[in-house]
Amino acid sequence: MALHKPVMTVQQHILLEQKRFPGASGEFSFLLSGITLATKMIQAQVRRAGLTDLLGSYGETNVQGEVQQKLDVYANEALLDNLRVRESVGVLASEENERPLMVHGSSPNAKYAVIFDPLDGSSNIDVNVSVGTTFSILKRAEGSSLDDSSSWLLQPGSQQVAAGYVVYGSSTMMVYTVGNGVHGFTLDPAVGAYVLSHENIRMPAQGPYYSTNEAYRDTFPRADQEYIERLRTGKLGRNYSSRYIGSMIADFHRTLLKGGVFLYPPTSTSPDGKLRLLYEANPVAMIAEEAGGAAWSGSQRILDIVPKTIHQRTALAVGGQVEMDEYKRCLAEFGEA
Ligand code: AHG
Ligand code: MN
Ligand code: MN
User: How many CA atoms does the CB half-sphere of 265 hold within 13 Å?
Assistant: First the structure.
């Protein structure tokens, strides 16, 4: 009787995937191990948050004008500390820091910029609802200046060499892509390793849910209002149900696995959309496309947007093929956001 079932850890998987990057040697997997280690540290704190002094606000406001939670600050430091020691990292950009950090920017060995939202969905921390971490990795553009972080960071999402997220839900799960399919790993808490549990995730072409903050619906652009009406009234051949958690990563994770669409259109209070292009929209857009779905802003494919600033916001609609085809039809009929 076999007592042991062979497992594939995320680290083994990355080492195999890395063979696709000529010249990447071990550095890319070492970089990603910084993310896996940091997210294990974050999940350990998330799991114990009610027992320690880590709930509640830190007492500071971040660059986005949002009140920082203690876990936002902890998660940010865990990622910065684990990534800054990796020599292949040149620039670190966090949603929580006004300016990017040049770490080994002038070293010829520094090739990658790592961009992250350390804790997504922070309004859900205190109430024991899923939160997440996102990451996006860009390679230093050919000919870009070694000490100018903008030239590393202001590249369209189509240039991402890897993207992913961790969702701290009923289990902790990491989902990532290096442009060769989307793979999901569940943290085995007994072993402390992310183990392959969802190989080659494909987003259903059509799903049962739409996910948006309905409270703002009257202030959405006309195309988005009409789109939601079509979903609700069976125009796509089914009556959609709604689900909205308020942690983009958790809402996206469900959309990826079960299908449907997640929408955060412009609103009267966030006329450019609320979500951030670099930290939030780009990583989920790369994963959605790799899994057979699509991601669109009010006017174009998310991954084609050339960022002007690192904290820029965007409207986001991300979902399966059927939902996104209809979304584009609505934009064409009713005008862009
Ligand atoms: P963050 O916690 O990183 O600031 O992100 C919060 C975002 C996102 O996770 C979520 O989709 C959205 O805010 C929810 O906003 P509303 O409360 O306006 O629906
Ligand atoms: Mn966020
Ligand atoms: Mn955040």
Answer: 27
CATH match of 209-333 with 3.10.50.30: no
Every domain of the chain and the residues it spans? 10-198, 209-333
Ligand nearest, relative to CA of residue 246: 1
φ, ψ of residue 89 to 5 degrees: the values are: -90, 125
* Topology at the third CATH level for domain 10-198: Fructose-1,6-Bisphosphatase; Chain A, domain 1 (3.30.540)
133 Cβ inside 6 Å of ligand 1: no
Q: Which of 210, 236, 222 is nearest to 336 (CA)?
A: 222
Both tokens assigned to 70: 């203690």
Nearest residue (CA) to ligand 1, atom 11:
248
Dig out the tokens for 235 from the structure: 């125009």
pLDDT the model gives residue 23: 61
For 20-66, write each residue's pLDDT tens digit.
766 666 888 899 999 999 999 999 999 988 787 777 787 778 777 77
Instruction: Give CA–CA dist 310/92, Å, rounded.
Output: 11
pLDDT (tens digit, 9 = 90+) per residue, 235-261?
A: 999 989 999 999 999 999 999 999 999
